[in-house]
Specification:
Helix content is about 10%, strand content about 35%. By secondary structure, the chain is mainly β. A hairpin with a 2-residue loop joins strand 11 and strand 12. The two termini are about 25 Å apart. The protein is globular, with a radius of gyration of 20 Å. The chain folds into three domains: about 70 residues, Roll (SH3 type barrels); about 50 residues; about 160 residues, endopeptidase fold (from Nostoc punctiforme). It has four helices and 22 strands.
Length: about 300
Amino acid sequence: MVTAIALHSVIPLRSEPKETAEQTTQMLFAQTADVLEEQARWTHIRLHTDGQEGWADKKMLTPLSEREWDEINHDAHLTHPTHFLPVTALPLTYAVSENNGQTLPLTAGTRLYEYQDGRFNILGVHFRIDPQAVLTHPLPLTQENLLQVVRFFLNIPYLWGGKNALGMDCSGFTQTIYSLFGISLPRNAGEQAALLRSSDSRFHTLHPVLSLTHAQPGDIAFFDHTSSQQPNADLQPHISHVGILLDPQRIIHCSGRVKVERIDEKGILSHEIIHPEHPDGHYTHRLIQIGRPTPTTDTHA
């Protein structure tokens, strides 16, 4: 199988091989992928980290020779999502190439190969980076750690298919945040919720939580959209939104922007949408289910 790597900060992946096609996700620096198909200036790839597929502009990808792939994948578990590599923890961090002195912006969750003491190496190019911006081991998922991490992400704007400091969607946000705690999730909200019903060896397990009264900080909550002040429980739910509980009364999620809002058993109660008939706020998303990720196991090489 032919493989490729991203040596740009972020590469958009699209649903079709054209510039106007929907962006479905993004490929971060140093992520690798299998090449599935090539058409003119476009390449269809499957990411090793979460299995997402999409079309990338061919000139933005760097093909890997067998030797280079073996060099990167020297550990059989290196590209497995549950294998923790040092990652950038801030929404935006700059690395500096020791080869030419150029700077490279890196978004949160970027994995760093051969990292040690503020330096990492990719395909023979050595970079310097602020060690305070790097997690060498996953953080324990506690309320204190969660609050320390997410405060840097507040007000990042919503962007469909995005997962970087200048734009994220709801599941890109949760996937990125949980990666800092050593918890691997699929890319989309529906796929993340599916882990409540069946396990997938590529990702961490989610255990169902009965209700908000049983919830803990760091639990993941799934929703469908509703504009009704009194959500209709009889409607067939369709998972279309996801967020992270800070406590049983507050949730952080990306809807318009990354923000903290109130939550109750009905769903997310927003104060950004005020109507004279609803002075206490407006329900924007109906709560469907809550899950708890499995405890973090440090599998750092």
